[in-house]
Model the fold of this input.
Amino acid sequence: MLLSCVWLAGLPGDWLLDDFSLPEEGWPSLARPRPLTYLTYWLNLQSSGAAPWAYRLTNILLHAAAVQFCFGALRRIVGPERALVAAALFAVHPLQAESVLYVFSRPVVLMGLLLWVGLELWLRGKHGWTVLFYGLALAAKEEAVAFPLVLTLLHFSISRNGREWRWIGLMYGMATVAGAGLLWAAAREAGTGAGAGARVGVWEYLASQPLAMVFYAKQLAWPEFIGLRWPTQRLPPWGVLLWIVPLWGLWIGRKHFERAGAAFWIAAAWVSLLPTSSFLPLDDWAAGRRLYLAIALLAAALPVGGWKWKLAAVLGLAAVAWQWSAELYAKPVELWAATVRRQPGEQAAILQYARYLPPGEALALLEQNPAPENAGHQTELGRLYLETARVPEALQAFGKALAIKPGVASHVYNRGVALRVLGQKEAAEADFRRALEIDPRHKLAREALATRER
Done:
């Protein structure tokens, strides 16, 4: 757990990407995905207000607890020496930075903690308690659907206890319900970037994942900061055939599957990636947070000997993790500047970087990287035009954002703001009312109308 202190260097950092929406979260609804995670966000808001460091500290504490339960579970399977190394690598691998310091990745950390608790209880024969924690893990993040597969592998590797099947079957049923609910939610809500809401088809996504896994392997062996969005080359549909390679490799190494050999841990790590690699298409082709559990599972496959190089590896990775925390995640300007350098043209990084620059420099950056079909780009352009008193251009940019995504309340509200500055009060009021019709909780539109009525 002490090794997790390396992430404390990232506490001073600002919100990142979707983090900005968290202070507006209310009491979580059971009808939305991840209610347990949103409950923790609500508790953060009630206890410490909208302080990013408090949210990040919660992430770090959850990760430290996950490391402890990871060690407790693994030592029952591979012994204390290998478990200690695996838990240490799990604690400090630099790829954990996105999961631990990006607050919106809390679902991954919370799910991981609950699954490690469930696994340790399972190994102690407390199967009913494991089912309970598995249900909580599903309420934290839907990727927990893979856990019954891991228990199935564990059953055939070291257990063969027939009484386990009724409990595993119950968890498969829970996973089916959770998976169906996720598909329904992805089809129902706009902008999820998953399933029916993804901008990529199923076969195209599946074809990309073998290359994504090669990229994961490279990053695990030699971690390198490339930004919060990982670019992955897209393959045509025939790339799906590349899935044969890992299956063939596991078949060749099947003799190392029994008694929790290396093949078991590699298979378990692969299974932990399946929900984000094959369950449904996602706009993000690859992401560091998806390796959160896989890092510990792969580390458990390492042989017992070689303590010196293992210690050196842990210390080296801890140093890199500290550097990333202190120099990148604690300094958002540096984070986004580095991302823009490494991924030229990446719109999400450009927009985030622009928010930390003076208005003139930010406008120049956006105009040098045009994105006429990107609503976020047009919205940020409109904000900067307003700030620099170029109101007609702001109205035009807000109008483009609304044309790209016409059902978004904030786009309607932004256009209303520009109209109000231009003196078109009735049109502005109509936009504010329309924004509230789309989203009755839209605070800024409600305040704008209240000001108008006074």
Remarks:
- The first helix runs from residue 35 to 48.
- The mean pLDDT is 87.
- The chain has two domains: 2-334, 357-453.
